[in-house]
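Fig. S4 source data, part A: sequence.
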Amino acid sequence: MTATVKVWDPMVRLFHWSLVTSFAVAWLTGDELMSVHEWAGYAAGGLVALRLFLGLVGSPYARFRQFIRSPGKTAAYAGDILRNREVRYIGHNPVGALMVIALLAAMAALAFTGWMQTTDAYWGVEWVEEAHELLANVLLALVTLHIAGVVLASVRHHENLVRAMITGRKRAAGRRDVA
């Protein structure tokens, strides 16, 4: 049996799948069920705030300082991916970390522009509505890239990253892996 290590704590996993759910619900109800859409957006905004908190004081692999790398290291890792020679990270790899930040920023901006539309000052303001719709589409594109990255890393490193986000466990680090 292969040795495993605990990577994703229950709060990170609950956050992840709750954000997936809230975005899916908001996406599917945007034109029809506005009250459900709005509550899903509020949930997403609250979840982003929770993740920012976990990024500062959460478990070791949840902390931003553990996985955010410099632009140079991130670009070098992206080049290694293109050359099929990237090393395996136990937590987020540098490109995955960039995706985490992009997803959180886009979701926060999407929730904010959605909230703006519920205020007297911005209700019916066209640029806010257009920004909200654009951000929803950008977020959908980011989610698609995220899923593609998860599939690629799962194949390249011979591990099921979706299962890891369910169980919290990944294969223990080998000689070449970055803990």
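Fig. S4 source data, part B ends here. Residues 4-170 form a domain with the Fumarate Reductase Cytochrome B subunit fold (CATH 1.20.950).
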